[in-house]
Amino acid sequence: MNDNQYLNRLFKDYYSKNRNNLPVIELFDQREFGFIPWDKEIKMIRHIGFRKINDLVKYLTDSGPRHVYSSGTLYSQPEIPDMGGKGYRGCDLIIDIDVDHFYTPCKEDHDYWQCRECGKTGRGMVKKCPKCKAFKIKTLAWICDECLNVAKEEIIKLVNNFLIPDFGIEVNKFKVAFSGHRGYHLKIGSEKMRPLTSGERREIADYVSGENISFDILGLKERGGNIFGFSKINIGWAQKIVSKIEEILSKPDIYIKQLLLDKNKFNLGKNLTESFLKSKDKFLSIIKDENRNSWAIEGFGINTWNTFLTGIVHEIGVEIDTPVTIDIHRLIRYPGSLHGKTGFKVQEILLNELTDFNPLDEAEEKLDPIIFESKVKTTQKLEILEQKVPMTQIKGEKYGPYSKGEIIEVPHHIAIFLLCKEVAKSI
Question: What residues contact 234, with CB distance under 8 A and at least 6 apart?
Answer without folding.
Answer: 218, 219, 242
